[in-house]
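To: structure subgroup
Subject: Chain for Friday's discussion

All,

I'm putting the inputs and outputs inline so they're searchable in the archive.
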Amino acid sequence: MSLSNIKDGLMANLLASGKWAATELSSCDFGITEFSASCVIVQPGPNSRFYPVAGLGRSACGSTRIKTKEWTIVGIGMVKDQGDPRALLGNLWTLCDDLYDAIDADDTLDGQCMTSHITLMSRPSIDSFINDGNTDWGYITFALEATEI
């Protein structure tokens, strides 16, 4: 397994939820915001950890110990501000539920890790927006930890 495979599994979960189209999910392009009203962008996160697994000895090649890998992936869920503050706030609440439900639906991320879970979901501040020059976006940040051996 690899972090790239885990990312693919995460994207598969998000797509399978039916809340976002493939064009609204990205791990490599912030430009998807241009054509969507809601989108999710993920990238490798900080603080991934790796440590030897006690009692499991060395890997098949014998040169390294078997390790637990705790990968961190961070993301941002964005909702376009259509000019209705109530709708924007409602969509941000729904975004939190949708992200949690999509990721929790299969905590192996399509079989790519032993287990995963959201460790953080946050609206940095009540007046946090991203502006692309034309449009304001409300957003939620989140972090996911995926474990593999």
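Points worth raising on Friday:
Residues 85-104 form the longest helix (20 residues).
The chain has two helices and seven strands.

D.
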